[in-house]
Design a protein that fits this description.
The chain is an all-beta fold. It has strands spanning about 1-5, 10-15, 20-25, 30-40, 45-50, 55-60, 65-70, 75-80, 90-100, 110-115, 120-124. The termini are far apart.
């Protein structure tokens, strides 16, 4: 019913920049929350940055001042601008979206959807 697709990962040297993009499509009435998470090998998935439909943002302490999240509500997209990248930022980055489905007349309408992930590698 809903597809979430990320793009923009890659290999970059420490101190460099990357921009990740995520687009949600399908039976969407609204998207309440969009967030970027990362997962390094052997570690749990962690929230990096999030943005509500109101525009309220939240960042992990480790990325404050370096990463900026933004969204286009009309296009159901979210982006993550990553500057001053560090080797410890290396991980698979996932886009998550809390979607209110359209066309549902009764029962649950809100679901979390995930993208397939995009690899970000920062070399020292």
């Amino acid at each position: 019913q809903v597809q979430v697709v990320e793009s923009g990962g890659g290999l970059v040297q420490a101190g460099g920049s990357l921009r990740l993009s995520c687009a949600a499509s399908g039976s969407i009435s609204s998207i309440v929350f969009m967030g970027w998470y990362h997962q390094a090998p052997g570690k749990q998935r962690e929230l990096v940055a999030s943005i509500q439909s109101s525009g309220t943002t939240n960042y992990a302490d480790s990325v404050k001042g370096r990463f900026t999240i933004s969204r286009d509500n009309a296009k159901n997209t979210v982006s993550l601008q990553m500057n001053s990248l560090k080797p410890e930022d290396t991980a698979v980055y996932y886009c998550g979206a809390d979607v209110e489905l359209s066309g549902v007349t009764y029962g649950r309408r809100m679901y979390r959807y995930w993208g397939q992930g995009t690899q970000v590698t920062v070399s020292s």
